[in-house]
Amino acid sequence: MAEATPTTLGDLAYEVRSKNAGPFWVTMELFLRDADGYRIAADETFLNEGTVARLYGIDEADVQMFRIPSLNVVKISFPRPVSQASLRDRDVHSGQHHVPLAVLPLPAT
Predict the structure, then answer these.
(1) In angstroms, rounded to a whole number, what is the distance separating the alpha carbons of residues 11 and 22?
(2) Which of the two ends of the chain, N or C, has the fewest CB atoms closer than 10 A to its terminal CB?
(3) Is 27 helix (H, G, I), strand (E, B) or coil?
């Protein structure tokens, strides 16, 4: 059976995860399956600070991106919308923040 054509960023990855990076920051990591997937995910015309800002409703200037080609990894960090474990915090461990990133449709080829 042939493998399905990837349609989302998550389809290119072994894992897409998010976690808190202290009480004030969220970090997300894309562990891409191979160099081809990394090439797509690391393409600054597709996945960039503006894309992340739109997905998460945050200021583009607050987004930090780290592309690590030797590991086929893209790491993204941004300030949490509310501090960890505060009254309005709905995800203490930031474990669900990765979902919009994982379901991001790939650019048309």
Answers:
(1) 28
(2) N
(3) strand
- Position 96 scores a pLDDT of 79
For 72-105, the pLDDT digits (tens) are 999 999 998 777 767 776 676 666 789 999 999 9
Phi/psi at 49 (5° precision): -60, -40
Q: Output the CA angle 41-104-6, nearest 5 degrees.
A: 70
Q: What DSSP string describes 34-67?
A: SHHHHHHHT-TTTSSHHHHHHHHT--GGG-EEEE
How does DSSP classify residue 8?
Answer: B
Choose the weakest-confidence range: 1-5, 36-40, 47-51, 72-76: 1-5
Look up the pTM and report it: 0.87
Token representation of residue 103? 């379901």
Q: What is the rounded distance in angstroms from the CA atom of residue 85 to the CA atom of residue 103?
A: 26
Q: Phi and psi at residue 64, in whole multiples of 5°?
A: -115, 130
Pairwise CA distance, residues 105 & 87, whole Å: 33
